[in-house]
Amino acid sequence: MSNWKHRHVLDLANFSIEDFATILKLANRFKAVPTSGTRKLPALQGRLIATLFFEPSTRTRSSFELAAKRLSADVQSFTPNSSSLSKGETPIDTALTYVAMGADVLIVRHGSTNVPEQLAQYLEKAGYKKTSVLNGGDGLHSHPSQGLLDLYTLAKFFSPNNPIPDAIQNKKIVIVGDILHSRVARSNLWALTACGADVVLCAPPTLLPEEFADFVDAPPPGQKYDPVSKRGRVTVVRSLKNAFQDADAVMTLRLQKERMRQNLLTNLKQYHYEYGITHESLKWCGKKVPVLHPGPVNRGVEISSALLEDNSICLVRDQVRNGIAIRMALLYLLATSN
Questions:
Q1: Does 153 score more than 60 pLDDT?
Q2: CB-based contact 329:26 (threshold 8 Å)
Q3: pLDDT one-digit tens code per residue, 93-125
Q4: Mean pLDDT over residues 70-75, rounded?
Q5: 250-284 burial string, b = 16+ CB within 10 Å, else e?
Q6: Burial of 320 from C-beta contacts in 10 A (0-12 / 13-18 / 19+)
Q7: Is the separation of the CB atoms in 158 and 170 below 8 Å?
Q8: DSSP state of 160
Q9: Could you tell me the pLDDT band of residue 35, with boundaries at 50, 70 and 90?
Q10: pTM above threshold 0.85
Q11: pLDDT tens digits, residue range 155-164?
Q12: Residue 146, exposed/middle/buried by CB under 10 A (0-12, 13-18, 19+)?
């Protein structure tokens, strides 16, 4: 699309309303493609997409690879356990190997913050103009494709026939759980507030510092200005009951114990009692609301099994399905803009 100006997608903090609208519109077109019969589109035939996942993943990696294949792209997958990393190769040298093979898009997931950005900067300085970097999740920083698919899932719920950013304007979206360690939460904060939603964060202080209330008040380091003139509000509420008052949607997040450097929770049963999402706790919303979870799920901790399997309000499966369309849109925009 002619109005697409991003060579790399590393974060959602630099996305304008027009950028979000472009992604949602294109994803909705791809979503409308029949899933039976001939599923492939020739849009990226002859293009090479490389998935460089230095960190484990099920949904994101599989979704990106399926998205690329549905666009008829060639796909190469990097597996750390059978790579030259064990011989001392750096992530940049690994990436340059795929660039030399002609990769149009590198999807990079890494446990350390800013690795995709550092790679993109290296490619720019080295003059590699034909390869884009797409952040598949880095440290505690960002997971842009997840933020976009969550945005699309909500827009599609509120406006099934026309899922545009305005569909969540003035909606109250509650995000519950491990905000501190969640790159998904950070990407959702940028995406949802850009589209005019008011976001309420809810968790105990060990998982949600008060500073998150100011998260979108200024552009991140290195970004000169905010492309969104007026964002929705971000507030921090400790009580689940108070947070749910008049909520329009709820998103719960996994407790990322692998990222916790200290024991921030002493009792998972108590956490579920205070912050677990169930049919009973959703009654505090005062109306029927959709529930999202980016996965993987700790059943009986963040969300009850009964609610997770209630497809009338739990949109987890929709998130997975929508992730393919969103990632098709991202790959198409990046691969055809070079």
A1: yes
A2: yes
A3: 889 999 999 999 999 999 999 999 999 999 999
A4: 96
A5: bbbbbbbeeeeeeebbeeeeebbebbbbeeebbee
A6: middle
A7: no
A8: T
A9: low
A10: yes
A11: 999 999 999 9
A12: buried
H/E/C letters for each residue in 235-289? Answer: EEECCHHHHHCCCCEEEECCCCCCCCCCCCCCCHHHHHHHHCECHHHHHHHCCCC
> Which residues 6+ apart lie within 8 Å of 64 measured at CB?
49, 51, 107, 136, 145, 327, 331
**Would residue 53 be called left, alpha or beta, if left means φ above 0 and alpha means ψ between -120 and 50 degrees?**
beta
- The residues, any chain, with a CB within 8 Å of residue 224's CB and separated by 6 or more, are none
| 291 φ/ψ angles, rounded to the nearest 5 degrees | -125, 130
- Tally of residues, the chain: 338
Residue 187 near residue 152 (C-beta atoms within 8 A): no
In this prediction, residue 86 has a pLDDT band, given cuts at 50, 70 and 90, of low
Q: Which two tokens stand for residue 267?
A: 């009792």
Largest CA distance in the chain: 58
Please state, rounded to an integer, the average pLDDT across all residues of the chain.
92
pLDDT per residue as tens digits for the range 291-308: 999 988 989 889 999 999
Q: What is the pLDDT of residue 85?
A: 62
Q: Cα–Cα distance between 191 and 47 in angstroms, integer?
A: 29
Of 117, 152, 147, 145, residue with least CA distance to 7: 117
Distances (CA, A) of 34 to 60, 82, 251, 325: 22, 36, 29, 12
